[in-house]
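Section 5.1 Outputs to date
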Amino acid sequence: ELPDHLVYIKSFLLDAHEVTNEAYSRCHECERGSGGFDTFDRQQPVVYVDWKNAESYCNSQNKRLPTEAEWERAGRGPVGNAYPWGPAAPSPRTARFSAKGPVAVFELPGGASAEGALNLSGNVAEWVADWYDPRYYARSGDRNPQGPDLGDYRVIRGSGFSSPADELRVSARGFHNALRGADHIGFRCAVSVKSTP
């Protein structure tokens, strides 16, 4: 997550919450791997989805996965917060962490970001568009960075329900094998906004 650096990003919109099991089940071209939860609550974030199927779902909605830079901007808000809800450390009122499973995507409104996105930290980590490179920040451009051209893993952001509180910082980065979903990884979609002249 270092070095700190200023990045300029074109306008975009980010879904207010993670994609739910119910929404994902309506995507006929999308698949989900099997996993350890016995039940999947309709309003909980969909998990066990690999990166490609997450991308396919967003495309089916005429959206896309956010870039890592967009995700971090959404989490930091306009003033650069340490957490989506502000500077205060995580609490059970703001985030789902150190727990055995996720909660419904509409829960924990106390953890909303400045623009109203829920569960950007905790609940489930989220796939973003970028390939992972631990040294990328040292050489990335300062305008609309898209991440490395290639890699072995994809970036996940936001930590998940089993993460400790100190991993819920908006700046924290993670990575995962793009070919495998996991019980702690979900996603949300983004869309570019055309600028007006």
